[in-house]
Amino acid sequence: MIHDQANYERDGENVREPLLSEKGEETVDVRDESPLPDDLTREELTLPNPSEPEIARHYTRLSQMNWAIDSGPYPLGSCTMKYNPKFTEDVAADPNAAVHPDRSARSAQGILELQYRLQDVLAEIGGMDAVTLQPPAGAAGELTGILVAKAYHEHHGNDRSEVVIPASAHGTNFATAATAGYDVVELPSGEDGRVDVEALEAAVGDDTAALMLTNPNTVGLFERDITEIAEVVHDAGGLLYYDGANLNALLGRGRPGDMGFDVMHYNVHKTFATPHGGGGPGAGPVGVVDELAPFLPTPRVREADERSGYERFEPARTIGKVHGFAGNWLVLVKAYAYVARLGDEGLSDAAAKAVLNANYLAERIELDVPFGPFHHEFAATAGERDAADVAKRMLDFGVHPPTTKWPEMVPEAMLTEPTEIEGQSSLDNLAEAFNCAYADTDEALGSAPNRTAAARIDQVGAARNPRLSWQALDGE
Amino acid sequence: MSRANGTPYAPHTDEETAAMLAAIGVDDEEALFDIPDAVAFDDNLGIEPRTEREIRDECARILNRNDDLTEFLGRGHYGHYVPSVVDHLADRAEFLTSYTQYQPEASQGFLQALFEYQSMLVELTGLDVANCSMYDAATALGEAATLADRLRSTSGDVVLVPEQLREGKRAVLENYCAGAELTVEEYPTADGTADVDALAERAGDDVVMVYAENPTVRGCIEERLDAVGDVAAETDALFVLGSDVVALSVLESPAAVGADVVVGEAGALGLPTAYGMGLGIFACRDDFLRQVPGRLVGASEERAPPEAARDGGGDAADARGTRAYTLTLQTREQHIRKERATSNICTNQAWVALRAAIHAATLGPSGLVGLANDCVREAEALATRIDELSGAAAPVHDRHHFREFAVRVDQPAAAVAGDLETEGFAVHAIDDHLLQVCVTDLNAGRTDGLVAAFEEVL
């Protein structure tokens, strides 16, 4: 099936949906209407003033110019784009889920109980002892985890300055460590694509605060030497951090806590099918072993006595807060509903089907796929072709392309993660899109895509001449 | 054909699974897992699967354990009525189930919506650039401090904040500052707003950033913001102003008082109270463009197809020239600059930005100004009525207020708040004898009940 995006034409010319501002603006003289003295108010405000029907049409047309998991396959490696069940939206739309965060614990028992249950279930899935739900994104979870590790070291009078990160890791790992004030030590990958334990031994030492590791890693390989890796890091006095980006491949089959990880974040928007919403909101709960629990952000939730139900409490040596309030709560409600729907068997089967799909697709495509066997993703190489061009051409075959040009350890990488939600025929279509695009002419690749709302966009020009608002377009 | 999957969301039939395994050349799924026995999990997680209906019932039952209160709560998180059109349009699956716009040609809809959101924030702040991806006001403030550190790294390491600041916001700022080796210090407030003279006295070469809020956490409208801006400018410190999307539509323009950066909450439009979920505003002058954290959407053009260029179509961009949108300036970001990135944030809150934009568009400028003016009028009216009660004085600060104000009570504030809760109303207890009350379009219809409850419990 070929998916054509809305692409409005008139007399052979492309006619895009106009900006709201191009449909008409209104200027309000604020001082005329304000109950405040003039010197406390702005003079005027100019914004679009569309009617509600115009708004409905505007955003409906915009939606039709947008790819989504409900439109077709979206195999972006490391992003885990899987079907978002509809009922979880209804669960999260409960008005009782949307109360003010400054409610007393006594008057918000429903929220606290659901938080407590989710903490508990996440701890079980990760093999961790304690969980905070506060971090509002995966990257925020990373920062929380590293700040907790830092506080732990400082509490033990152990001022360490370095975080070790494999070269193939997500860029957020590096940025997070730097944001927390650490120097980054980059660890090259071994020849088999995994961590080289000897290189790791050479890299860690008295200054090592933590090793940040994704397992399976960013080319879908399980770090088989994980026990040894944990030992090396722990022997050096460091902590082992688990990046939860690829937890989908382990659900019910392996737990970071059992592998020696001390701290981890969960990307609930990936692993537990909460929708990505065009790039957020997500949520990045953090799990830790007992020794690190006193450092978690405040407040946490625990069971009180029978009469009072659940209560908030401040961990003894808390790092404070990583979000102004309680994080992206509605996202967490959806995650709870998803986990409850699947249960033990469903979670484990999700991992099994995701792994099956990745290996089947890797088998079906004609591009080279180095390394293996794979967990839920693999990095094919476009070889002599430009991975970005191949990706654009894939859009013409009705699928969203994989992540391109990353990780760098695979040249012209196409990092592909079909997830468990695609069936055999869908995977065959995906493979065909890969194969046809890869074998196509330079001309076809260079002029793609043709079935999207816009043709190839000049991204270099956008960066050279930044125009970031409709005000910046005025006079053009 | 039968589906024997544990997950209801995998389409595989048994026959398909068998065919796929055969194609790979393995006997069963277990053979594909490369997890050493020593760390494989073969136990039970103890999570019972439930049906949709059971889960909806279960969650509704649990959440229903919240007390049914009318909330007069604010202090940084505000409930305004969200028009139905916001839910219906934002919930379109093409928006909700999409991801970051890494293939802009296939993501024009979301990119244009984010471009429009950025533009609205440019108008509201008067600054040149606004991003569309901060988590909330507190984390945006933290990012502003690290921006100040990057821009003014040679000149000092102190971030000045008002002594009256929401505790949670201060705690988040501290965490961002610790990594950048910045120190957070307070400057005094006078009757609910910045004590500009004391601030001027404290300012100096060691200060990289001065932060002020309008309205303040006590709901007071600042009267000398331009003087705060002057102090920051004289010491070459970054002037960062905190506000929110509704207040910005009527209060003095941040650009006019010399603000270099505006942070705050945009989720005040588009989101229900959501237990603290938000959307951080981050807007700044264009000279900081390449140091801005978070995602930016830019306008560009479609490139000409290769044939057109070959046929003498001239400059590629001009040959086709239809406007289009893309994520841009990614060289600042974590996936290129890694540990030298401006922030570890990638995408976040895009969908909330969409909601805020739809809500703002629905109100239009007249509606926004009207909503904001009500925030002034309702606060004043409610404070006057509470002030008439014996045992209470309001507003505590002799200032103009926006949405919220402090109330001094003779009895212990916590006890009064507890008693009000019993009467069905939630207010903040902020100090021994201080309460804070927040009124918006959402609870303005219940002020009679609140006043009666106050009368009852005082």
Q: Can you walk through the features of this model?
A:
The complex is a heterodimer of chains A (476) and B (458). Chain A is 35% helix and 13% strand. Chain A has 476 residues and is α/β, with parallel strands linked by helices. In chain A, β6, α6 and β7 form a beta-alpha-beta unit. In chain A, α5 packs across α6, α10 crosses α12 (424-439) and α11 packs across α12. The longest helix of chain A is centred in the last third of the chain and has 36 residues, at 329-364. Chain B is α/β, with parallel strands linked by helices and 458 residues long. Helices cover 37% and strands 16% of the residues of chain B. Chain B has helices at residues 14-24, 52-63, 84-90, 93-96, 108-125, 137-151, 167-179, 196-202, 225-234, 306-310, 316-320, 334-337, 350-387, 413-422, 447-457; strands at residues 70-71, 129-130, 158-162, 183-187, 189-190, 193-194, 207-213, 238-244, 261-265, 280-284, 297-301, 323-327, 392-393, 404-409, 425-426, 428-431, 434-438. In chain B, the strands form 5 sheets. Chain B has a 7-stranded mixed β-sheet, sandwiched between helices. Chain B is globular and about 80 Å long. Mean pLDDT of chain B is 94; it is low at 308-319. At the A-B interface, β3, β4, α2, α3 and α4 of A face α1, α2, α3, α4 and α5 of B.
Features:
A: 476 residues; alpha/beta; three-stranded antiparallel β-sheet; 13% strand; B: 458 residues; seven-stranded mixed β-sheet; four-stranded antiparallel β-sheet; 15 helices; 17 strands; 16% strand
Termini distance of chain A? 40 Å
Mean pLDDT of chain A: 95
Contiguous low-pLDDT stretches of chain A (5 residues minimum) are none
Number of strands of chain A: 16
Structural class of chain A: alpha/beta
Q: What's the multimeric state?
A: heterodimer
Mean pLDDT metric of chain B: 94
Number of strands of chain B: 17
Chains forming the largest contact: A-B, 201 and 190 residues
Question: How do the strands line up in the largest sheet of chain B?
Answer: 2-10-9-8-7-3-4
What is the CA-based Rg of chain A, rounded? 25 Å
The dominant shape of chain A is globular
